[in-house]
Amino acid sequence: MYHKEKSLQIKNSASALYNNLGVLRIAPKQLTYFTVVHANVVNMVSASWDGLNYSHRQLQSKEPNVATSTSLIMQAAFCALPSRDLLVVTSQKGIQIYESDGSIMVYWHALETPETPTETAVFARGISAVWENYICVGVSSGAILVFDIPSKGTPILNNTNCNLCLWKSGEEFQVLNKIPGFDMSCSSVKLWKGTVVAGYGSGQIRLYEAVTGILHAEVNAHARWIYSLDIAPFSGLLLSAAEDSLVRVWHLSMTPETNTVEVAHLHNECVTDTQICGAKFCDGDGYAFAVTGYDLSEIIRYVQP
Amino acid sequence: MSVRTLPLVFINLGGEMLYILDQRLRSLNTSEDNSEKGVWSDNDRSRVMNDIVGTLFNRAFMDELLKPQHLYSHRTMKTVLTRIAHASIMRLNAASMDRLYELMVMAFKYQVLLCPRPKDMLLITYNHMDAIREFVQDTPVIVNQVDETHRKIIEVYSSFTEGEFQLLRQTLLIFFQDMHVRVSLFLKNKTQNPNGRFALTTSGPVPHGSDVPGLIRLFDCKGREVRRHGFPVAGSYSSSIRPGSFGLQGPRVIRLGLNMYTMSDTEETHTSNTPSVKADESPNLLAKEELNLLARLMGSMRAEDRVEDEAGTFRVHLFYTDEEEDEEEAGASGGAEKPSFDLINIQATQDEHVTSELALIAGQFTEAEENSGNHSDNREDLLAMMDDL
């Protein structure tokens, strides 16, 4: 169904972090941006669609007010909002928001970290663009920071403290539902057509109906921790990638009349001797996808013929 | 990232170091070795193991490690481990310490990478501790130190969630990133490829708590299963085996962390240098913080009274020279870079080099009075003292 295409080389190898691959398609410029995190650096590659031009950039997590800081980055992700695209980078020290090409930092939010390390680690992770103009970032304490993103200018922090799973966003956020964890660690979550798709440390993928929390489907998908999930919204393709070296492509289909979901397996790719840490579709139809792995200095690409 | 990595790092790296030293010292206990003078008797070996284990599991040192703090650089790690090794009558020069460190780190990297569940890192640690207890079983005082540390580890880590263990593991993986030093034993076992990367299998038992992949289950709105079907897995997995014991004793079940050198020949503790990415040599901006940590750690290690060693100097080869290594490498790596080896001298001399600075720092942490150094070394700078190691 897919075959391997020419890989993109990156300056450093990928670190073993969840969802360690960001992809943003810029149709007007016929470019795609890729981001991969290595320790305290974000490697950005910009690839032209004709395959002829590549450019690289590195963003270092350096906080403006700390002279000697080697803050490890937890995650870098693109947030595509209707008005603008942004790149969000989270670390132990705080959250940085850049223009999507990484050229300018438009916002910096410091996490409150105590002088000496406390019992548990403090960090921010879990980035999501919500509705029209919000970006949400999770914090290790369980809080979620919500940023108002104006179409131009500086984002504004609109803090909310809540341990939860699902909100309905409108004028303000309301808690809709809480989905219990079953003592399994969830590393990746996607929302599509009213369904929550979650990937777990046990290797399972579960699909829940968002509003009611009903379990629609359960897949024993992988033999090790799932590190990344992605959905191609126009086609309903689901991509899952895990430490077991496998990337799997599934098809999700909803039947509103019976309120059921169907999950079909389509394709496997094995990246030999690699623990995969990031996998994303490169377009909304799922025509192509890209993969990163721990200690690998390349972004592997697969495309349908 | 995680602030709880140091105790596990030191116990596991220290354990690997002891496995290697034990194996090398045993191999030198025969008349076939190339040493110019003398051999290492069982007694000598036992003494070395006791000294090193006693220092590694020193209470003040362990308490310092157990405080929440970030993982430090390879340079600091190597310095402290060198100091621990030199708590014995053994002396390793910088080149052999470099080789030893590479072996230790690659072994631990392999164990962390292949760890089935993040929580199983504790089982790997306990495998090391079980073996360490055996090394010092004739010295109850030191066995007690190991037991006490084991209890503290259980206490600190028993409340961790799987997510916290995975964060710890990810922190360690960043620490090991880009290290691809080839190890003879791994190459021979096919656990490592000629390019230095570890081989990962897509078969075998799944981790405890996971299900064998291959099943899709669909439910209706009342939670009843309406359909199930399989899918091609592209691997061959089996059900998980029973979990190991997380207590003071008991079968650990996992084999990662066991002494892989005991069954193999003496040539196995070899490494060869690939042109891998070297550790960042640029000035470390956190140097001052790290030096302070170093001072605290070293000061908390007990410097014991030493008896004059009558036997004099022993010059010993820890790692063999080029000719034997070439034979081995030719088969394994075919065409790769020729390994570089140095003749490594181990000197069994007394080290009364306890500097006055260390003694001062030690005074804060240890109960017994330290032997203040007679060595007039004129070192005022902690940094300069580290260069001397």
TrEMBL record, chain A:
<dbReference type="GO" id="GO:0005814">
    <property type="term" value="C:centriole"/>
</dbReference>
<protein>
    <recommendedName>
        <fullName>WD repeat-containing protein 54 beta-propeller domain-containing protein</fullName>
    </recommendedName>
</protein>
<feature type="repeat" description="WD">
    <location>
        <begin position="219"/>
        <end position="260"/>
    </location>
</feature>
<keyword id="KW-0853">WD repeat</keyword>
<dbReference type="GO" id="GO:0060271">
    <property type="term" value="P:cilium assembly"/>
</dbReference>
<feature type="domain" description="WD repeat-containing protein 54 beta-propeller">
    <location>
        <begin position="1"/>
        <end position="157"/>
    </location>
</feature>
<dbReference type="InterPro" id="IPR001680">
    <property type="entry name" value="WD40_rpt"/>
</dbReference>
<dbReference type="InterPro" id="IPR050505">
    <property type="entry name" value="WDR55/POC1"/>
</dbReference>
<dbReference type="InterPro" id="IPR036322">
    <property type="entry name" value="WD40_repeat_dom_sf"/>
</dbReference>
<keyword id="KW-0677">Repeat</keyword>
<dbReference type="InterPro" id="IPR049546">
    <property type="entry name" value="WDR54_beta_prop"/>
</dbReference>
<dbReference type="Pfam" id="PF21031">
    <property type="entry name" value="WDR54"/>
</dbReference>
<feature type="domain" description="WD repeat-containing protein 54 beta-propeller">
    <location>
        <begin position="162"/>
        <end position="302"/>
    </location>
</feature>
<dbReference type="InterPro" id="IPR015943">
    <property type="entry name" value="WD40/YVTN_repeat-like_dom_sf"/>
</dbReference>
<dbReference type="GO" id="GO:0036064">
    <property type="term" value="C:ciliary basal body"/>
</dbReference>
